[in-house]
Design goal:
The structure holds two protein chains of two kinds. By secondary structure, chain A is mostly helical. Chain A is built from eight helices and two strands. Chain A has a two-stranded antiparallel ribbon with strand order 1-2. In chain A, a hairpin with a 2-residue loop joins strand 1 and strand 2. The two termini of chain A are about 35 Å apart. By secondary structure, chain B is an alpha+beta fold. Chain B has one domain. Helices cover about 35% and strands about 25% of the residues of chain B. Chain B has four helices and nine strands. Chain B has a seven-stranded antiparallel sheet with strand order 2-1-3-4-5-6-7. A two-stranded parallel ribbon of chain B has the order 8-9. The longest helix of chain B is centred in the first third of the chain and has 45 residues. The interface between A and B is medium-sized, with 37 and 31 residues.
């Protein structure tokens, strides 16, 4: 998370860098625990992504509002209390929405507290920027995280159960690749996506380099 | 760390305590507020989850009442006290459709908790629903989907002549070797989970049914 200009203008980049250039999963490889554990279906991936986004935005807002009040010696303790508050709120809200979903996500809702994306953003971004900017950036990061979970969840559900959002895709004769919804499948799919993203990134960098050399001549 | 530039370099302990205390108060307020707002919905969801499971294992039921069963007999759950909780389910005419109770046994990953339906008319277990399970997806979770496994029900659960235990203990047998109506034919590939279902049903039925069956008339009519 280095090298960012510290001005107060909110540009499209404030939102977009969380989705592409600094994607928490595919670029920074943060918060791998929920990424691998709960992405065995699209529904779980969406729920986890939204829950994390809510906590990210809520804690970013509060940390940013209080950034000039919190003494730096107790800042981490304060951030954890703030994050834990929003996680508890999400925990109750999910129970109120659907107990099935709550059971499917298991302990990973409570474990959002220790998700390093959220603490990392509070420390590195929200504590140094205006609330509005922190909110936009939190929304971007949360969207990036949700999209990444969706990427994994859709592939794993499609191959592992032959369904998408519970609807059958391949018909009854499809033999599901059970390994895909088990933990090893999470690693396989994450590896495949990382391969694709890094290849795209390198290709783009190569093309830009080529263009520059052409211009230089 | 440019975030605390306006503060003096040495922050007093009092200030730290003030900030932490203030934020903890704010957090407490937010959490309690959410708890109060969501509690009715959560309770409703829990009730619905039990109700759905009860009506699933006892098809045709439309209402239910909760009872507690212990050595002294059966009494409504509203009276409180100890005992095993059972749900008596009634159809639209107020006739007893059956009784649902919880059972559980150790599966492959963790305890498999199920709710099963008992029909006093045929003295059999009509079916079960999973309340909590962390079994392997695609293998252990077949117990709710595998048609051959579900064909094990209704499962014979008659009491022995002395009324103190089941005439035949419920057991899970190897796939394809079922001979009696009290045996459960295991799913090949999910033997441990199938065995857990059998063990849970047997433990619960052996314990509950001898106490319940003599008092079944008390549950027959819906007030």
């Amino acid at each position: 998370m280095a090298g960012r200009k510290r001005d107060d203008t909110i540009t499209a980049d404030t939102f977009l860098e969380g989705i592409w250039r600094e994607n928490p999963v595919f670029v920074m490889l943060l918060g791998m625990c929920p990424v691998l554990a709960v992405t065995n279906s699209v529904m779980n991936a969406i729920a986890m992504g939204l829950a994390t986004t809510f906590v990210l935005i809520g804690s970013s807002t509060l940390v940013s509002l209080l950034r000039n009040v919190i003494p730096k010696q107790v800042r981490i303790a304060t951030y954890i209390v703030i994050i834990a508050t929003f996680v508890t709120i999400v925990d109750y809200v999910i129970q109120a929405i659907s107990l099935d979903l709550y059971n499917a996500l298991g302990a990973f809702i409570q474990l959002i507290v220790v998700n390093c994306i959220i603490l990392g953003r509070a420390e590195a971004y929200a504590s140094k920027n205006r609330p509005l900017k922190a909110i936009v950036s939190g929304l971007g990061m949360g969207s990036g995280f949700t999209i990444a979970l969706l990427c994994l969840g859709s592939v794993r559900e499609l191959l592992g159960s032959g369904t998408l959002l519970g609807f059958s895709v391949f018909g009854a004769q499809f033999e599901p690749w059970v390994v895909m919804i088990l933990p090893p499948g999470g690693f396989f799919v994450l590896g495949a996506w990382l391969l694709l993203f890094n290849w795209l990134r390198e290709r783009k960098a190569r093309l830009e380099l080529k263009e520059e050399t052409v211009h230089a001549r | 760390m440019s975030s605390v530039a306006p503060l003096p370099p040495q922050t007093s302990s009092l200030r730290m305590i003030q900030v932490l205390g203030g934020i903890a108060m704010l957090s407490g307020f937010l959490v309690v507020l959410t708890y109060q707002l969501t509690l009715p919905r959560i309770e409703l969801n829990r009730q619905r989850a039990i109700e759905r499971a009860v009506f699933q294992v006892l098809p045709g039921a439309t209402t239910r009442r909760d009872f507690l069963v212990d050595d002294d007999g059966v009494r409504p759950a509203s009276e409180g006290g100890g005992g095993t909780k059972v749900y008596a389910a009634y159809d639209a005419d107020g006739k007893l459709k059956g009784i649902a109770a919880e059972a559980g046994a150790r599966g492959y990953q963790d305890i498999v908790r199920i709710l099963y339906g008992y029909d006093p008319a045929c003295q059999c277990i009509t079916g079960f629903a999973v309340l909590q399970s962390t079994e392997t997806p695609g293998l252990g979770d077949k117990i709710t989907k595998d048609a051959k496994f579900l064909a094990n029900f209704p499962l014979d659960a008659r009491l022995a002549a002395d009324g103190r235990q089941l005439a035949n203990a419920i057991v899970t047998v190897k796939h394809g070797s079922k001979t009696g109506p009290w045996q459960i034919d295991a799913i090949s590939g999910a033997t441990i989970t199938s065995t857990a279902v059998g063990k849970g049903l047997n433990n619960s039925a052996q314990n509950l049914l001898p106490r319940l069956q003599p008092h079944i008339q008390a549950l027959e009519v819906q007030p």
